[in-house]
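Researcher: Structure for this, please.
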Amino acid sequence: MRFEPISQTMEGLIPKGIPEPKDTDKAVLYILSNDVITEGASYIVYKEVLNGIRKTLNSDFFIIPSSINEVMILKTGINGKTYLKKVLKLINDIYIDQSDILSNNIYLYNGNLNIV
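Model: Predicted structure, token format:
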């Protein structure tokens, strides 16, 4: 399993001269996938994985299903669900191959109830 800040995943892929995104404690976007980032979105069905992420973040979180290959994770309270849903739809429409789109919905993981 791979769970890391997206800036770490993108390290080395950003062309020289373009500033890399700076993560802050409040707005770190994480990626959840497998080690090869291929069909790794399936980790969201494992409650023990989601509960482990909650413990790591010390927060409930949004699950942003960017494709069948990975999902993005963002702590709650950073941006509203409506805003994130609009961003996801835009990304899916422009950048993601139709066959790789997982969803246009944003999901909230509630750690107290251990449910999405």
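Researcher: Any notable elements?
Model: The longest helix spans residues 81-94. The two ends are 19 Å apart (CA to CA).
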